[in-house]
């Protein structure tokens, strides 16, 4: 489960950065910008489809982060239970209290104006990501060194442990998880808007993308490979869970705590663009909805609270928390989210924008290569989505709603 989706990391992910640079470096024109200073989105139905997919993914990410945070908190509680009872307590722990607790914290964080724009949030997220990823990698290496055995095989999980059909669906689900791991495109434009110039946003993003993608991909590959080498066919969805009962359990607890801290901010990074969109559209349709009242907190400046913002954001957090409790299948949920957003947001729309921007002739070699790549990624998204949906269906046969347990 080792994730690295902080605002800081997302702000410089992108395998098609040239598209963004080409779109930005054009001649400035006031007609090309919205009243909030952002580049105006045009294109009719394409923009609406892109927006729907983007906001569905943002909503799905909020659900996935709630599940992930609950799983890490459960591992911390389980570790304490096992070691305090010397292994005599079976330590059955429900994830519902932790999901509710995470949701309650998000209720308060969601009311902080421009919470996701706080500079220290990116620093904290980046540090936490590096911290728990490094621990997971180090623990994987140490376990392989301790046993002197590399578990697993080059062909993946063994037939017998799972059926051939389950292995195929599992591979497809894995593709969805990989797609989610590089889900920078969900909030790419929002993050690009925060970059100050000079240098231009395009140049800054391109430079950062080259460095960050190299670093994050290296970490992903090392953590995934060493985790599989350490546990083989029994590798857990949350890699850190496999080390919870080891002598270094306190190190694992620190790593899980870092994940939780990271996800508190990551939830807001993904939720805030959706909050802003709904609030802006509501203000356009119902101008009087923007009423505020003053909140006096001892020791702090008077806070102006928007009534609609309070109600809407509270409802959002409650619904996302309830859905997370209803289908607490971390890997499957991430696979579905990744498959849903990967092709349209990371491939199709950027490629089409690039073709138009660069005026690439139809049926030219470059056009054909781009379209082949786009088609291939579409197929990957489809099979990844199917694999993840099958995973959810299989899990629903074994689990009861609202019953996440370790």
TrEMBL record:
Main location: membrane
Gene Ontology molecular function: symporter activity
Subcellular location: Cell membrane; Endomembrane system
One Pfam family linked to the record: Aa_trans
Transmembrane segments: 52-74, 95-112, 118-141, 171-191, 211-230, 250-270, 310-330, 336-356, 368-394
Keywords: Amino-acid transport, Auxin signaling pathway, Cell membrane, Membrane, Symport, Transmembrane, Transmembrane helix, Transport
Keyword Transmembrane helix: yes
Domain Amino acid transporter transmembrane: 42-392
A GO cellular component entry from the record: endomembrane system
GO biological process, one term: amino acid transport
Membrane topology: Multi-pass membrane protein
InterPro entries xref list: AA_transpt_TM
Known function: Carrier protein involved in proton-driven auxin influx. Mediates the formation of auxin gradient from developing leaves (site of auxin biosynthesis) to tips by contributing to the loading of auxin in vascular tissues and facilitating acropetal (base to tip) auxin transport within inner tissues of the root apex, and basipetal (tip to base) auxin transport within outer tissues of the root apex. May be involved in lateral roots and nodules formation.
Family according to the record: Belongs to the amino acid/polyamine transporter 2 family. Amino acid/auxin permease (AAAP) (TC 2.A.18.1) subfamily.
Protein known as: Amino acid transporter transmembrane domain-containing protein
Organism: Trifolium subterraneum (Subterranean clover)
């Amino acid at each position: 489960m080792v994730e690295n989706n902080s605002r800081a990391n997302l702000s410089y992910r992108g395998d098609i950065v040239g598209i963004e640079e080409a779109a930005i470096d054009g001649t400035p024109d006031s007609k090309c910008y919205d009243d909030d200073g952002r580049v105006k989105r045009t294109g009719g139905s394409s923009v609406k489809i892109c927006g729907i997919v983007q906001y569905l993914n943002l909503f799905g990410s909020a659900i996935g982060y709630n599940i992930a945070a609950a799983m890490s908190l459960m591992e911390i509680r389980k570790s304490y239970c096992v070691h305090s009872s010397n292994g005599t307590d079976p330590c059955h722990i429900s994830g519902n209290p932790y999901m509710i607790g995470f949701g309650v914290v998000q209720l308060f964080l969601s009311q902080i104006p421009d919470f996701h724009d706080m500079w220290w949030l990116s620093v904290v997220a980046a540090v936490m990501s590096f911290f728990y990823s490094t621990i997971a990698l180090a623990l994987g290496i140490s376990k392989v060194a301790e046993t002197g055995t590399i578990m697993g095989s080059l062909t993946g999980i063994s037939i017998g442990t799972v059926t051939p059909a389950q292995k195929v669906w599992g591979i497809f689900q894995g593709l969805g998880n990989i797609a989610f791991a590089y889900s920078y495109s969900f909030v790419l434009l929002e993050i690009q808007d925060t970059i100050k110039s000079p240098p231009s946003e395009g140049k800054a993003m391109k430079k950062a993308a080259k460095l960050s993608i190299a670093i994050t991909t290296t970490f992903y590959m090392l953590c995934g490979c060493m985790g599989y080498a350490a546990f083989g066919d029994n590798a857990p969805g949350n890699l850190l869970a496999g080390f919870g009962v080891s002598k270094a359990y306190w190190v694992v607890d620190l790593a899980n705590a870092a994940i939780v801290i990271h996800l508190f901010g990551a939830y807001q990074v993904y939720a805030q663009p959706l909050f802003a969109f709904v609030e802006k559209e509501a203000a356009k349709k119902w101008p009087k909805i923007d009423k505020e009242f003053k909140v006096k907190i001892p020791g702090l400046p008077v806070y102006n609270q928007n009534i609609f913002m309070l109600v809407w954001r509270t409802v959002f957090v409650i619904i996302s928390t309830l859905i997370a409790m209803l289908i607490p299948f971390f890997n499957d949920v991430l696979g579905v989210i990744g498959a849903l957003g990967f092709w349209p947001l990371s491939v199709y729309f950027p490629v089409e924008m690039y073709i138009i921007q660069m005026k690439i002739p139809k049926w030219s070699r470059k056009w054909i290569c781009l379209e082949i790549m786009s088609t291939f990624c579409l197929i990957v998204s489809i099979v990844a989505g199917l694999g993840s949906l099958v995973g959810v269906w299989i899990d629903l046969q074994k689990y009861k709603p609202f019953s996440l347990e370790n």
